């Protein structure tokens, strides 16, 4: 579904991506792991076209995204943002239905509200939540609203940016389970970036570790624990000593 070939991006003298090569199969769930500041979010932004790479190629089903129609391209994606990124001035249902009310073929407000309530139910939220504002919800509920918005328009590809950040372990487990169920149900292709190894094990079909601007290791999640790569082993087990510098 998505192929990155020798992707490079620098910000001034700082090389963030130094030749990333990655293949994400259609209908699979890829989780990208790596330390803070390694370029995971930059990678997602390059795929979405929010950041222009300095070199390399990104293809979506074989088509170079640089040549794609922008509106049609973005319509294929859904996104769950790390901080929720809900619109404070809009009610919950309006947040969920934001895309449904816009674009070339928008729904009417009654249609969009009904669709939003259905998506809220899918993530375990009752209809009465629809008319509340984000500030009236807990962090876990806000994350569920963000997930409902991400799937509202039935995207082919969904990005999850640190989906369990700021949640307690029980709510993190609930969100991980919801993500896995929804991705499987929709047959969507998913890319998640996270530091949470419990999320990796719950969500991933395949794992890619980004380190020093390249993909250090990639493979099925079932092979991750036994992989011989020392950087991968240091990261997934949280070891202070190892080849990854600057952890002390």
Describe this structure in words.
By secondary structure, the chain is α/β, with parallel strands linked by helices. It has a domain at about 1-70 and about 190-248: P-loop containing nucleotide triphosphate hydrolases (Rossmann fold), CATH 3.40.50.300. Helices cover about 30% and strands about 25% of the residues. It contains eight helices and ten strands. A six-stranded mixed sheet has the order 6-7-8-3-9-10. Strands 2-1-4-5 form a four-stranded antiparallel sheet, with helices on one face. Helix 6 links the parallel strand 7 (about 155-160) and strand 8 (about 190-195). It starts with a strand and ends in an 11-residue tail after the last helix. The mean pLDDT is about 90.
Sequence-ordered SSE layout with sheet pairings:
Blueprint: E1 2-11, E2 14-24, E3 29-33, H1 40-48, E4 55-60, E5 63-64, H2 70-74, E6 77-80, H3 92-96, H4 109-122, H5 139-151, E7 157-161, H6 169-186, E8 189-193, H7 197-203, E9 206-211, E10 214-220, H8 230-237
Parallel strand pairs: 3-8, 3-9, 6-7, 7-8
Antiparallel strand pairs: 1-2, 1-4, 4-5, 9-10
Helix pairs in contact: 4-5, 5-6, 6-7
């Amino acid at each position: 579904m998505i192929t990155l070939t020798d992707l490079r991006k620098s910000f001034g003298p700082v090389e963030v991506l130094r030749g990333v090569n990655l293949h994400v199969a259609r209908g699979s769930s890829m989780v990208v792991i790596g330390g803070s500041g390694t370029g995971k979010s930059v990678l997602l932004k390059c795929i979405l076209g929010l950041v222009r790479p300095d070199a390399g190629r990104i293809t979506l089903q074989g088509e170079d995204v640089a040549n794609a129609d922008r509106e049609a391209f973005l319509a294929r994606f859904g996104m769950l943002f790390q901080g929720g990124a809900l619109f404070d001035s809009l009610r919950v249902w309006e947040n969920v239905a934001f895309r449904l009310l816009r674009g070339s073929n928008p729904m009417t407000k009654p249609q969009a509200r009904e669709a939003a309530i259905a998506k809220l139910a899918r993530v375990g939220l009752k209809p009465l939540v629809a008319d509340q504002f984000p500030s009236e919800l807990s962090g876990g509920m806000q994350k569920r609203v963000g997930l409902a918005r991400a799937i509202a328009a039935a995207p082919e590809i969904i990005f999850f940016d640190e989906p369990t950040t700021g949640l307690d372990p029980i709510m993190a487990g609930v969100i991980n389970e919801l993500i896995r169920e929804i991705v499987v149900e929709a047959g969507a292709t998913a890319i998640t970036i996270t530091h949470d190894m419990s999320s990796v094990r719950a969500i991933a079909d395949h794992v890619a570790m980004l380190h020093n601007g390249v993909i250090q290791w990639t493979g099925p999640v079932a092979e991750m624990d036994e992989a011989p790569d020392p950087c991968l082993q240091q990261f997934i087990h949280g070891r202070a000593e190892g080849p990854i510098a600057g952890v002390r």
